[in-house]
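User: Before I run my own analysis I want an independent prediction to cross-check against. Here's the chain; please return only the structure tokens and, at the end, one sentence I can use as a sanity check.
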Amino acid sequence: MKTVQITPAYSSDKELRGLYESAFPENEQIPWDDLMCLIDQMSLDFTAYYDNEAFIGFTIVYPRKTFNWFWYFAVSEKLRGKGVGQRILSQLIKKYEGQSIVLDMESPYQAPCPNPAQRKRRHAFYLRNGFRDTQVYRLYGDIEMTIMMLGPGTFTLQDWDDITNELKKFWWPDD
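Assistant: Structure tokens:
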């Protein structure tokens, strides 16, 4: 699997942008042009993954001193359920080996919600890969987010607020 570090110069990459905009609900997306600006401002680790020359997915990680925030992770729709996400996640975990990793995802416990089966599959995927459910939940709009963690330490609501406040220094949606 080949990786490419994404910089603002990739802002016109239609395949990458298309996956970003289709894989996440619009209210969970940072507008593409804003995201491209944040790459340098926040030192984001934005990586595209390729199988030979075929684009298969991407990850965006916000490296931090206390833990690394796995911010976005998407696999091309036609490749989902075929082990590609597993390969990418394994490579990403190895890259950040020895460091704590945190991610937030749509809670599998929120009801009602439009995609309960997808949320449960995603939650089970991370549990199989060594993440634990921190039992920390936050609302993002009307979506309940569950915090998952891999590695030592704990994650608290204060940690969530710290990440949110860091992001607000660079970008925040208009309310």
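Sanity check: The chain has one domain: 2-170.
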